[in-house]
Amino acid sequence: MDPEARRSAVVDALFRVVRRDGVEQASLRNVAEEAGLAIGSVRHYFDSHDELLVFALRELEDRVEVRMRAGAERIFAADSSAERRPLVEALLGELLPLDADRHDEAVIWLAFVTAARTRPSLRPSALRLHEGLRMVVGRILAGAARLGALPEGVAVDVETERLAALVDGLAVNAVLQPDRTTPEVMVAVLSRHLDDLAG
Q1: pTM of the entire structure?
Q2: What does the DSSP 8-state code read for residue 199?
């Protein structure tokens, strides 16, 4: 296995441990066991638990960014508001736990951003995830305002924060109360908010 593939396998193992047992259980030993590797193999790539966590959170950040950029490009390439609306909903839906893979990602995201509160090394990546969502939402809403797709006088900065907070809140509720905040509920709430925003 080449070094990049080995590093990726270790990160995937870490994500499985975090999803199942939480960040504090993602020790080098536990991650190595999950990956089916000797701990020395993991230490070859990561000197410490903290270094592994930082790398993994950056990897999560990169995976989300790739999807967000692709979705944003489709939105900005669309010719009309009618074309853009479902693309905006789909882009924001990428950040919601609407299926098993995105639910796992949301569980991991929540575990890491919670851990960042007391682990300074995780804060820069956690902040970039936070700011990345707001940047994308802000660009979408600013573009919609320029095209006249929002009511006149809408405060784009306030609406950016409101929509980003809605997405974050839905994701957290879906992780903590999945029986109550189902995919159907999340889609309905997001869709209603976008309808209201458009006036």
Answers
A1: 0.89
A2: -
